[in-house]
Amino acid sequence: MKGFEQFGNHFKSLRIKKGMTLRNFCQTCGLDAGNMSKLERGMIAPPKSREVLEKYAACLDIKEGSDDWYTFFDLAAVCSGQIPPELMSDEKLVAKLPLIFRTLRGQDVPEDQLEDLAELISRS
Length: 124
Fold this sequence. Notes:
Elements (H helix, E strand, L loop, with lengths): L3 H14 L4 H8 L3 H8 L9 H10 L7 H13 L5 H4 L2 H14 L6 H13 L1
Helix pairs in contact: 1-5, 7-8
C-alpha cells in the first residue's frame, strides 16, 4: 500500500478543486463511490489501464499535455512501480536510467555523466 497515498491525495485534491463531493463526482462520472474512496485514501493502487486513467482525467477536467496531466499519469505509473511509457520509448533516456537511479540514491556520479544526462533530459 505504500506510495498509493500520493496518487490518492493528488486525485482528491483535483476533485475538490472542481468543487465536487466524492458522491457527486462519482454520480456524475458513473463511478463506484466505495472504490473511489479507497483510491483517494491510498488503500488501493491506481489503475494500470491507460483507458481508465484517461476516463478519470476527463472526469477531473485534466487537459491532455498539461502539467496536471503529466503529474496524474506519472504518479499513477510510479505508484504501480512503473516508469511512464513515453519515457521508456526513448532509448537514449532509458540507457541513462541507471545514472538517474544512482543520483537519486545519493551515490557519486562523474560530472561529465551528469552533464550528458542534463542535456538529454532538457531535449526530451
